[in-house]
Specification:
six-stranded mixed sheet; alpha+beta; 8 helices; Chloramphenicol Acetyltransferase
Amino acid sequence: MEKRKKRFGDRYDGYRVRSLSPMAYIIPFIMKTRNDASNLFSGSVELGRIENYIKKKRRDDGLSGFGFLHVMLAAYVRLVSQKPAMNRFIAGQRIYQHGEDITISMMVKKSMELNAQESAIKVVFNPEDTADDIYRKIDAAVEEARAEGDSNLFDNVARIINYMPALILRAFVGFIDFLDYFGLCPKIIHKASPFHCSMFITNLGSLGIPPIYHHLYNFGTCPIFFSFGAKRTALEVQKDGSVEKHKYVDFTVVSDERITDGHYYATAFKQLDWILRHPDCLDERPEQIIQDVD
């Protein structure tokens, strides 16, 4: 995909979206924070085709750790390649596009012990990535986080600022937030911060509970928080009166409504549903990468 040229008013981490309706420009001044502008959405994924797809990836492609998380991430990256407004964010009361990259944050345990320390990882994807690409990038990021122990960039930055007295730390975070308002956040903070991303995802299925509606963070640039839960079974009556058992995974999305309109969100979630019902499409690169409006 051709890289856009930066212009006056763009940020180093995004491109200003300039051709929106007047209402779109005003809304960020009315709803000033992400939690002011949070919309809640829930859905379910039928697992029949997905479980067959996962088995095929493990058996035929040698991706032994391939699972539902990788399918969901691949589906979301594919969605953004076709619905680029899902990769926008608000900063300084202006609407920006994250650009050519899709950065997803998540928490990982550094070992399989119950009380093991967690750390945040950020993985950068490209719109043309396939499910295999997603798997390899996630696997490499998780292995790197576990190998680094408590010495990765996020933990190091957090440890340093944690030594500050509470009032100084509060002022420091406020100052960073002030700089970020103007697109001047130090790049080392931006690189370490899991809150500067395209989407945050959490897998509550690993804890055996349903998904929660996780709040957005007012700090950073993350416009969407995605959560999915444990598998559940439902008995459903068919047209002929028979009863069939189906497996589902429920998911929730908390989104910043200011980045685009309700119709766009609705079509995006419908397309995500189609992708998840046809997971084999994730093995091929998209025929076309849709660019966001200028």
